[in-house]
């Protein structure tokens, strides 16, 4: 194990500013309790929680990197690109995120119509009850409503039965392009990271295209250690990081004490040999 990789960094999680259930301050406290030394809050398509998260990290003596997780449409699938260490006052990034959030309200209304057709009434108002940021209504908020009403026993069941491709509450959506997301992050001084690569349903050719185009646009890192990878998947993406000369990131993707099985700070360290993403971002750590 390479000493530079032995850092308890957790560079992926969500607050009430997107689809998490804790505030930035509550997350910072939980991260510190989990032993996190370097933290980033990465709300979906939003950077509204960054100042609070940075202040809370400072109060707990943790290093902080600004963060977000941008939804992208690539080869007909939704891909998530994490951005780390950008300037959160950057206008192009702010405008870009605002534009990509824009379609969510209309999409949510259509999702509710789909659910109404299978007998689930009032899902839009119901989901809104769980929303912390009116600009960011997501499938997760619908999932919490369907669990709350007793229609499903947990959010995984809701996604399986109602909210994934082909199911009644699923509405296809066009998010940002890969190029836009990588450029918004890079031009703001940050590093773009492919989030949880094992979660996409790509053929080997499509995956190769994702990694190739991501590099071409200026992407520099990939999540190797994440709450949504098995040990085997982590090994595969450690190999991919080497093959594509990408730095490696580590993050729990924590959303909620009730829903997430991977808590902040508990993942294995990054494998040696790989370049940790924080090495590219030393000057951006607050
Ligand atoms: P959206 O951005 O509105 O499409 O919502 C995507 C979010 O839904 C993800 O960030 C996850 O938090 C959550 N999600 C996606 N798939 C699942 C699943 N199978 N089980 C639980 N949560 C999921
Ligand atoms: Mn989420
Ligand atoms: Mn994600
Ligand atoms: Mn996430």
Describe the protein in words:
The protein has 286 residues and is an alpha/beta fold. It has two domains: 7-100 and 175-284, TIM Barrel; 104-163, DNA polymerase, domain 1 (Orthogonal Bundle), CATH 1.10.150. The chain has ten helices and eight strands. The strands form two sheets. The protein has a five-stranded mixed β-sheet. Strands 1-2-3 form a three-stranded parallel β-sheet, with helices on one face. It is globular and about 55 Å long. The protein binds adenosine monophosphate and manganese (II) ion (MN) (3 copies). One manganese (II) ion binds next to loops.
Q: Which radius of gyration do the C-alpha atoms yield?
A: 18 Å
Tell me, what's the shape? Answer: globular
Q: What composes the largest sheet?
A: 5 strands, mixed
Corresponding CATH superfamily of the largest domain: Metal-dependent hydrolases
Task: Please give the structural blueprint.
Elements: E1 9-10, H1 24-33, E2 38-39, H2 50-59, E3 63-64, E4 67-74, E5 77-84, H3 91-101, H4 104-117, H5 123-128, H6 139-148, H7 155-163, H8 178-187, E6 191-194, H9 204-216, E7 221-226, H10 231-243, E8 247-251
Parallel strand pairs: 1-2, 2-3, 6-7, 7-8
Antiparallel strand pairs: 4-5, 5-6
The structure holds adenosine monophosphate and manganese (II) ion (3 copies).
Residues 12, 14, 69, 253 line the site of one manganese (II) ion.
